Amino acid sequence: MILARTHIELHNIRKNVEQIKKLSDNIVGVGPFGVGMDTALNFLPNIGKVNPGVAYSGLAGALLVLQGIRARAAPMILIQMSAILVVDTVAPLFGKAGAVADALFTGHKWAADMLLKHMEETIYFEGTREEALHTVEYRDLMGRVRAGKEDRRIIFLGGDGKRPKPIDLPTIPPQV
């Protein structure tokens, strides 16, 4: 399934987003500036009618948005990320000036940081809402929400749709 269902999958999403961010906009860091694949490929000649920088940027941007979908990011975050990534992808199509502007505009880093911050501001529960209702953590969380002390989003990752089977323990006959 495409959506993350466990905290391990969320951890892997974070790692993937960090890797895309670094590869795209900061393979080689020079002070506060970085050069990544996004910039380097823009200065290569076109392969047929395809600009390698635009192709890479579009693919990396699509992967970032896909990771946002998997992490169940809010629709507005996905829209904002997409807008940033579209600008970052099409900038090199405006000649050398666009390629230079793209080198200075670290859209992949910006979109990745936006997604990572959004994930940090989200509380993820493994399982369904019904399963979480019976946990102490969920009751404590809802107490903080009602008291106005908590305003983060709450996401239920869902279960496998199956109820856990009760364990059928053998009975021990009483000692006489």
Q: How would you explain this protein's 3D organization?
A:
This protein has about 180 residues and is mostly helical. The chain is about 55% helix and about 10% strand. The chain contains 8 helices and 4 strands; from the N terminus they run αββαααααβααβ. It has helices spanning about 5-25, 35-40, 50-70, 75-90, 95-105, 105-120, 130, 135-145; strands spanning about 30, 35, 120-125, 155. The strands form 2 sheets. The chain has a two-stranded antiparallel ribbon. Helix 3 (about 50-70) runs parallel beside helix 6 (about 105-120) and helix 4 (about 75-90) runs antiparallel to helix 6. The longest helix is centred in the N-terminal third of the chain and has 19 residues, at about 5-25. The mean pLDDT is about 85.
Would you list the SSEs in sequence order as H and E?
HEEHHHHHEHHE
Poorly predicted regions are none
Helix content: 55-70%
Q: List the total number of helices.
A: 8
Query: Structural class of the helix and strand makeup?
Result: mainly alpha
**Beta-strand percentage range:** 5-15%
Main sheet makeup: 2 strands, antiparallel
Mean pLDDT: 85
Shape: elongated
Cα gyration radius (Å): 23 Å
Termini separation: 55 Å
Count of individual beta strands: 4
Please give the order of strands in the largest beta sheet: 1-2
Characterize this entry briefly.
The chain is mainly alpha-helical and 176 residues long.
